[in-house]
Amino acid sequence: MKIYFATGNPGKLKEVSEKFAGIGIEVMQLEDEYPEIQTSQLEEVVRWGLDWLWERHKVPLMIDDSGLFIKVFDAFPGVYSAYVFKALGCEGVLKLMEGVDPRQAEFRCCAGYIDGNGQVVVTGTVKGRIIHEMQGTGGFGYDPIFVPQDQKKTFAQMTVEEKNSMSHRGRAFGLLADKLRE
Ligand code: IMP
User: What mean pLDDT do residues 67-87 have?
Assistant: First the structure.
């Protein structure tokens, strides 16, 4: 079985391809990005994006919308994570968090699939904390500043397989794979 994954992010493509390779599904990149609607819910972004892409391509496809939710900032940047990352990067977020304690945060990933029968949408989360300085060179985005609960390494210090085994995206696409096999 082959499924398209619409993303321009090579890091996401690698993680999802590896996750699905384990269950015999080949993931192919669809280089088209949907416009992100203004809403506070990742799921609404995904449902709207799936319909938009389906109208254009009419092939079975998946997308994901993810975000970093920092507790002391009332879950900010959340749905604005991409904008904040472009504007501030990890360094900027660390600056905003200087002297801030506690440092709990959560990554959420909403993953969606669409074909002629309709949509399947699921969410995966991982709790953790924002550390005080960047560590690691792997992964992408906020990976160098996020350490998952009960772990010592940041996502940027893990292999793709390790990150997938506990990450928001690994969990979301694991759930999606289960639903697709039902
Ligand atoms: P989006 O899902 O592409 O909209 O991602 C929103 C923002 O969160 C982007 O700046 C991503 O780099 C960041 N992001 C999404 N997933 C991850 C992840 O697994 N690790 C680190 N940053 C992520």
Answer: 95
| Count of helix runs (H) and strand runs (E) in the chain | 5, 7
Q: At what angle do helices 168-181 and 10-21 cross, to 10 degrees?
A: 50
Can you tell me which atom of ligand 1 is nearest the CA of 36?
A: 4
Answer CATH for 2-181 from 1.20.5.170, 3.90.1150.10, 3.60.15.10, 3.90.950.10: 3.90.950.10
Task: Give per-residue pLDDT as tens, 116-158.
Answer: 999 999 999 999 999 999 999 999 999 999 999 999 999 999 9
Query: How many angstroms is it from 85 CA to the middle of ligand 1?
Result: 8
If one compares 94 and 24, the residue with the highest pLDDT of the two is 94
* pLDDT score of 24: 87
Ligand 1 pocket check for 143: Cβ under 6 Å: yes
Q: Is 69 in the pocket of ligand 1 (CB under 6 A)?
A: no
pLDDT the model gives residue 179: 94
Contacting residues for 18 by C-beta, under 8 A, at least 6 apart: 160, 161, 164
